[in-house]
Specification:
Layout (H helix, E strand, L loop, with lengths): L1 H13 L12 E3 L4 E5 L9 E10 L6 E3 L5 E5 L7 E11 L4 E10 L4 E3 L2 E5 L5 E9 L2 E9 L1
Length: 148
């Protein structure tokens, strides 16, 4: 009988599961925003011992990450951050060295985009003003301002 108990104990330890990383849901942001990415929903059968956040796609100069070795990552986008998608990867590791990774995308939209001489200024999430600018003898003329 003792032999069976020993065999079952070894079998149970051999089937340890890797952790499951959860980097949370996609989020919007604007230049000047601070947001928190949370990995607290990550799970493991014996416990997570390390969390590691990394910017894996986007503009590195437009991001300040604080405490990337904690479950929650504070991300600051400076006022001059570039518009676009920023992908962050959370990697979690358990005490057995097993690991998993998950990604989350933060979409930064600052409201200032130059498209062939048209500057868009976002007033709120639904109203933008387009200013068409023409250079004439070192002067700027506003030809059109409208909401759309």
């Amino acid at each position: 009988m003792l032999w069976w108990w020993f065999l079952l104990t070894l079998t149970f330890n051999a089937t340890e599961l890797p952790p499951i990383a959860d980097a949370g849901e996609a989020q919007p942001a604007q230049p000047g925003d601070d947001i928190i990415l949370t990995g607290e929903q990550s799970t493991d059968d014996v416990g997570i011992v390390t969390y590691s956040w990394a910017l894996t796609d986007g503009h590195p100069g437009s991001v300040i990450m604080q405490n990337p070795e904690e479950p929650n990552l504070l991300v600051s986008f400076p006022a001059d951050a570039e518009d676009g998608d920023y992908e962050f990867t959370l990697t979690v590791t358990d005490s057995s060295g097993l690991f998993d990774a998950d990604t989350v995308v933060v979409t930064v939209k600052g409201g200032k985009t130059c498209i062939q001489g048209v500057h868009l200024f976002e007033l709120d999430r639904k109203t933008c003003i387009a200013l068409c600018i023409v250079w004439l003898t070192a002067s700027i003329w506003v030809l059109q301002a409208r909401s759309f």
